[in-house]
Amino acid sequence: TNDELIIGYVKKETKKLEEALKVRHYSKCTIERYKKWVQLFLTQNIVSDSKCNNQSAQKEINEYLKFLALKKNVSASTQNQALAALLFYYRFVKNEPMEKLANVVHAKKKTRIPVVFSRQEVSKIIGNLIGTKKLIAKLLYGTGLRLNEALSLRILDLDFDRNEIIVRHGKGGKDRHLMIPDRKSTRLNSSHCWSS
To answer: Which pTM does this prediction carry?
Structure first.
């Protein structure tokens, strides 16, 4: 049936997309998000292979982004994430020249003042935590670690002689070094919550 052909086509294209992303060393999270956006896009836009060939990629992308903004009411950053996934798909899977994708619509993000906790608010939040959760919250606040980085720390990532944490494969696959705040060093050193 036609539905089976569409499902087969979407699976085949998603597989090609995943391979193209892996070859370029994209993170697992990015791969999953891009796959999701391309699957939704293809499922919504492909009625048959001939429809895909009759309409320009740029027009299809713009219509889909308009649908996301007006009908699904997604945020600008979500819309731009979908756009990045679709541009990657058309450029590296469908081999569309970038010139043909030059006039796609980019959502403009609103400038907002960041919400920042006061020191008293941070103290109250951390004061209500116990054990490992409290230690992780203190690390996040005191070192600037990202949540995934803190949760994947191992004992070999801690260098108490240099008073630093080594973040391996952080955002963008990069390693970096962070200073351990003096007050946390003793608590970390005596903690028994580390997996090696």
So the answer is: 0.65
